[in-house]
Amino acid sequence: MRLLLGLAMLLALAGCGRVIPQGSVPPPVVSAPAAPVASAAANAVLAGVALGPALAALSVNDADARGALTSFIESCPRLLTREDASGLTRRDDWRGVCDAARGIAPERARSFFAEQFTAVQIGDGKAFATGYFEPEIAGSRTRRAGFEVPVYAMPSDLVRGWPDDVPASERTGRPPLGRYDEQGRFVLYHDRAAIEDGALAGKAPIIAWAADPVEFFFLQIQGSGRLRTPEGEVIRIGYAGQNGREYVGIGGVMRERGLLGEGPGKYSGSMQGIMAYIRQNPREGRDLMRLNKSWIFFAELKGDGPMGALGVPVRRESSVAADPAYVPLGAPVWLGLDRAEANGLWIAQDTGGAIKGANRFDTFWGAGEDARRIAGGMSGRGRAYVLLPRAAAARLGAR
User: Fold this and answer.
1) Which CATH architecture has domain 137-300?
2) What is the three-class DSSP state of 220?
3) With CB atoms counted within 10 Å of each terminal CB, which end of the chain scores lower, N or C?
C-alpha cells in the first residue's frame, strides 16, 4: 500500500515512504543515489537473520520509548490481522506482546521493549535512512485569483488493461495503468505535461486549487500534505493513485547536467536548492519538472494525522517507512545512524516506492518548517535492528 520517497537530494531523487489512504497503491519511483544495493533475497528470512545485542545495550531514551509505545499500541490491531510478508512473524506472535503493551504505564516503556522483544539483524544490518514529512502549502476550496493549480482526485477513465500489441502469452502479472481512447484502444495515461496543459479539465474531480505549482510538485513527490486556505481551513490530502507513468528524480537530472554542487552557478542537492533553481529559472524549471511524467491523484483525508500503509496514523519521530518484505509492518525498529536526531526506536508503519530491500528506511518528521528542514536533509547511515517478539526470534533460531 501506502504513500511518501527520501530526501537530501532525496526528496526529489528518491521518494520517501509516503502517507496515503488505506488500501491505495504506491507510485513507481526511482531509488535514492548512493543508497546501499537492496538485497536480492525475496524476504528477511532468505536474507539472513542473526541475533542482535540486548536492548539494554542500545541507546533508547525515555521520550523515544514512550512515543514508540504509543505508535506500537496503535499498530497492534493490524499486527493481529495481517499476514507478515517478511516471514519473520506469525499473527499469534504479537498477541501476548500487544496485550502487555496496553497495560504498560508510559514511564515503563523502555522496560516493556527490553522485556518483550529480541533484537535481530536482517542481512548485513547496514542501514540507510532518508526522511519524509507532511508539507503544508497554500490552497483554496474554489478556484480564484492566485489559486490556479488543480488538485485532482482519481479520474474515472484511469484503468488497468493490456495494449493490443501485447500477445496473450505475455500478459502475466498485473496489467499496466492507462486509459481507452476514442477508438477503444488501450493507451498510456496522460503524463504530467498533458495534465498541466489541461488534458483532465472537466474530466476528473477537483478537491481544491493550489497556489504554487512548484510547491505542489514537491507535495506530489511526498504523496500527502496539507492545503491551508486564506480563511485558515486546513485540507489534508493523501495519495489515492498514480497515472502509471514513469517517475524521474529531477535531482539526479540536475546532477547529470552539472547544476548541483559547490561554486558559482551551482545549487545544493537539497530540496531547497532544487526549488531555488526552478524558481530562478522558471522556463527551464518547468521543463525539468515535466521530465517527471508521474502524476499523483489525491483523496481528502479526515481524522487524526496522515495515514500510513499500515492503516494507522504516522507520528513524528516515531513512524518509519520500511520494506514489508524485510520488516513486519507494525514492528519496532532500532536505528543507530550518523544522524543523531534519527537514532533510537521507530515503528514500521509505512512503505514507499523507493524504500526497498533490507535495512532501507524513511523516517517521518511530521509537518512544519522544521520537519521540512530535517526531512529535506536526512541521509543517515549506520546499523538497524528489527525487534521481534521473543517467541518469533526463538523460532527463527536467533538465540
Assistant:
1) Beta Barrel (2.40)
2) helix
3) C
Cell for 26?
A: 504506491
Place of cell 477508438: 183
Cα→Cα distances 199→189, 194, 196, 203, Å: 10, 5, 7, 8
Residues 32 and 14: beta-carbon distance below 8 Å: yes
Strand partners, 299: 238
Domain extents in the chain: 10-132+308-395, 137-300
For 10-132+308-395, CATH gives 2.40.40.10
- Contact status, residue 28 vs residue 352, Cβ threshold 8 Å: no
Model pTM?
0.72
Least Cα distance to 355 among 325, 384, 312 occurs for 325
Q: CA-based Rg of the chain, rounded to a whole angstrom?
A: 21
In this predicted structure, the answer to whether residue 36 has a pLDDT above a threshold of 90 is no
Confidence band for 238, pLDDT divided at 50, 70 and 90:
confident
